Amino acid sequence: MNLRQALTFLTVAELGTVSKAAIRLRVAQPALSRQIIGLELELGLRLFDRVGRRLLLTGEGEQLIAGCRLLLNSVSSLKEQAQLLRQGDTGVLKVAGSPQHIESVLSEFLHLYAKRYPRVEIRIREGTGSEILTMLERGEIHLGQNLLHAVRLNEQHFGSLPLGSVQLLAACHPSTPLGPNHTIEITDLARFPLLLLDSGFGFRRAFDAASRMAGLKPAIVFESRNPHTLLALAEAGHGVAIVPSQLQCWRYRLRIVGLTHRRRVLQEPLTISWDRRRSLPRFASDYCAMLAAHMRETFPITRPTEPATAKRSARSRAKRVPLQAPSRI
Predict the structure, then answer these.
(1) For position 152, what pLDDT does the model report?
(2) Which residue of 33, 93, 231, 327 is surrounded by the most CB atoms within 10 Å?
(3) Measured on CA atoms in the order 89, 156, 123, 290, is the torsion positive or negative?
(4) How many CB atoms within 10 Å of residue 275?
(5) What residue ranges define each of the domains in the chain, with the CATH number in brackets?
(6) What is residue 185's predicted lDDT score, i.e. its pLDDT?
(7) Contact 138, 269 (CB under 8 A)
């Protein structure tokens, strides 16, 4: 098997048809079909089952996929290493993160990073927890931001750096009776309609895990891939949105409280991860360190709002403070 055959095999397996793979690889369809047939003859295995117009991997083909990906990743890593040796602090850094991370953190951080590495091109991809892990495994990105417990990383293959913690918050219209405190027990959410991120998000899986731990059966009325959709619905009084503390909520008129379980704040460690099998350029390692320092200074992006009773008490105390007579010069 040569590299061209390995790439052809993976592309056909991913797209399911020779015609689509030929378009992506810019190869004539008959030539690509001959490559697949030649590879099957060389290996002495049938790699695909022909089902109508689609090609489905056989059991033997499934077992060869991981090895082919490793082969192509190794070649890609070698090329990247050679490029780094030639160019020094010039290159491309591919990063993936959640929508809220990109909006609330990277929107500012990228300017800081560009001042230090002006010749590094940052390419950002948006994704959920499982999607980002898949990108890392396929070698499509160098770095992926995720909640630590949201995905299962193979510690032999992947390294990670902690970026702080994300608190679980409940956001609602100010008239919603969540109670007078700046926190609420997660079990007390049982009486409210909930607005949640969909199950692809690591944050959603963290909330589901906390709910199971607390014995909560949430009344879910809406799920979305857009956290701001949840905030808009919460502002309009349609329920309580469960959102991470790295989300920007200042545009909305909301009451925000932290979630607790047995009076302990519910939060999840946030990390940035990479594939140990690929050599990271210095500008990628520095990206991780600079991002961690930036987030220590700026987190949390959103905090629980001050309880209304506390605000009234503060205003009352301010009214009782006697005016001082002007000093004489």
Answers:
(1) 65
(2) 231
(3) negative
(4) 22
(5) 3-72 (1.10.10.10), 84-164+269-298 (3.40.190.10), 166-268 (3.40.190.290)
(6) 96
(7) no
Give the angle 239-242-247 at the CA atoms, nearest 5°.
120
User: Which residue, 162, 163, 154, 161, is CA-closest to 136?
Assistant: 154
Q: Beta strand 267-275 with 143-147: parallel, antiparallel or unpaired?
A: antiparallel
The answer to whether the CB of 148 falls within 8 A of the CB of 165 is no
pTM of this structure: 0.65
pLDDT value, residue 291: 96
Phi-psi region of 153 (alpha: psi -120 to 50; beta: other; left: phi over 0): beta
Question: Are residues 8 and 21 in contact, defined by beta-carbon separation less than 8 angstroms?
Answer: yes
Distance CA(229)–CA(235), nearest Å, equals 10
Q: Phi-psi region for residue 16, left (φ > 0), alpha (ψ -120 to 50) or beta? A: left
Residue 298: exposure state from Cβ atoms within 10 A (0-12, 13-18, ≥19): middle
Q: Which residues contact 220 (CB under 8 A, 6 or more apart)?
A: 193, 194, 196
Q: How far apart are the first and last CA of the chain?
A: 93
Among residues 41, 55, 49, 52, which one has the least CA distance to residue 13? 55
Give me 224's structure tokens: 């979305």
State the Cα–Cα distance between residues 18 and 172, nearest whole angstrom: 51
Distance CA 236, CA 175 (A): 11
**Two tokens, residue 286:** 């520095």
CA 84, 87, 89, 92 torsion-angle sign: negative
Is residue 175 left, alpha or beta, with left meaning phi > 0 and alpha meaning psi from -120 to 50? alpha
